[in-house]
Amino acid sequence: MVIVNTFREERNHFILEFHYLLDLTHKNEMVFREALLSFVLITGSILIVFLVFGLTWRNLMEERRLSELKSDFINNMTHELKTPLSTITVAGRTLEKEQIFTDRNKVLETARLIGKQSVHLNQLINTILEVSFLEREEFELDRHKVVIDELLQQVVTSFLTSCDGCAEIKEDYSTNGMEASVDIVYFTTMISNLLSNAVKYCDGEPVITVKAAAAGNDIEITVADNGLGIPSEHIGHIFEKFYRVPHGNIHKTKGLGLGLYYVRRIAMAHGGDVTVTSKPGRGSTFKIKIPIQKTS
């Protein structure tokens, strides 16, 4: 011990004496503890700062990405809506010309064009409204028990008719008449979206394979194509709302970035899910699993 200070006071025959002592027996241990505590506090403060910075940066990047998706969606929607509207406007002005009435075939052709573009415009609006409806946490499906093979055949036939035989579709069904409880309208749109994407994102002649097979308690529906494929860095985002995989000029291929988002939402609403495997230049394969029995 070391005497640091001494206090002495004499008064009224009393002597008061105080000694201030400093115990340095464990000096090294005390210094080490203080240094360690300081190091821990400093390190912890630095980690907290970096953590806050990292979270802030991630949030900013996510907000930026969502903002870009929103901007892309608005641009795409404007482009998609403008095309049929412009066509209808031009066709309407054509019908205003008196000389066109002398050519009955021209009048019918122009009327059909207006009708076709009106249907396309209505489909775009319905798609947006449907996705807005699907944004609700829960929505009711009008389920009916159907034979999946037969329903898929109807969807494929209807799709080929609507696109004037725009693709070669190979069908392979091995469910042996197995039934599932599905919403026929939503199910049809879900499969049609996959078929439509297979045609849109193909530079050559589209060749699509549609399969259905039993997989445990599920029916697995496979839609494979020979299209452009999806780069690995985009696979994790393709089911997000408004997301579109960039392929050159984004306006070259029509779409709002809602199709695959719609597919997953409908699959999940049926108690199933959808997965995808893809390689750039070699096409994509989508697999949808739907429970055989209606989930409770």
Tell me about this structure.
The chain is an alpha+beta fold and 296 residues long. The protein folds into three domains: 2-55; 67-134, Signal transduction histidine kinase, dimerisation/phosphotransfer (DHp) domain (Helix Hairpins, Orthogonal Bundle), CATH 1.10.287; 144-291, Histidine kinase-like ATPase, C-terminal domain (Heat Shock Protein 90). The chain has six helices and nine strands. The protein has helices at 27-96, 104-134, 148-162, 184-200, 232-235, 259-269; strands at residues 2-11, 14-22, 143-147, 168-174, 179-183, 207-215, 218-224, 273-278, 284-291. The strands form three sheets. It has a five-stranded mixed β-sheet, with helices on one face. Strands 1-2 form a two-stranded antiparallel ribbon. A two-stranded antiparallel ribbon has the order 3-5. The longest helix is centred in the first third of the chain and has 70 residues, at 27-96. It is elongated, with a radius of gyration of 35 Å. The mean pLDDT is 81.
